Amino acid sequence: MASKLIQLKSKATQASQFVAKHGTAYYKELLEKNKHYVQQPPTIEKCSELSNQLFYTRLASIPVRYEAFWKELDYVKHLWKNRKELKVEDAGIAALFGLEVFCWFCAGEIVGRGFTFTGYYV
Known about the structure:
Belongs to the ATPase g subunit family. One of its GO terms (molecular function) is proton transmembrane transporter activity. This is Mitochondrial ATP synthase subunit G protein. It is found in: Mitochondrion membrane. The structure is a single chain. This protein is mainly alpha-helical. It contains four helices and no strands. The protein has helices spanning 2-33, 44-60, 62-81, 88-112. The two termini are 19 Å apart. The model has no long low-confidence stretch (mean pLDDT 88).
């Protein structure tokens, strides 16, 4: 066990040295590639304005998303009404979707308990 700890410490040291050596260059390159997204001048007022724009843009998109939700719900109701004509492929897709939702729920529960499977902290 101690040898694994020493290996882990060695890898962490190597990673931190790599970041210290190449981190600044990566940061500058990243900013250079994405400079068209940077607002000039980069002030607190500009950040506040952009934050408000994002908030109110999202707020304005609620009616469109609300409408899309009801269209999806109507589609599901139509499928349920005509379930005798349902194809095996559609049922398979629905089953896979349900399984995926269940798995995300289980993963969320595990994360919420601090990555323990029993729920008790040791």
